[in-house]
Specification:
Blueprint (H helix, E strand, L loop, with lengths): L4 E4 L5 E5 L1 H17 L13 H10 L10
Antiparallel strand pairs: 1-2
């Protein structure tokens, strides 16, 4: 739930009022935009460090490597 926000100018007069509906829409639009544009996972293949892979292979020999890709 979002509460209406009132924005004042430097003279103390009301400049703009943002309704709770507008804030709700803005929040979810920015949330999904940020999720879709994540630079951390964008265009990168997840790779496992060689040392970690060797250690996991020794401890769990029956688990397929495809689970980690």
């Amino acid at each position: 739930m979002f509460f209406p926000v009132t924005i004042y100018d430097s003279a103390g007069k009301v400049k703009k009022v943002l309704s709770s509906k507008k804030l709700h829409e803005r929040h979810w639009r920015r949330f999904f935009d940020a999720e879709n544009l994540s630079s951390i996972t964008k265009g990168r293949k997840r790779e496992m460090p060689k040392g970690l892979k060797g250690k996991l292979d020794q401890e769990f020999p029956k688990i397929s490597v495809r689970l980690f890709r």
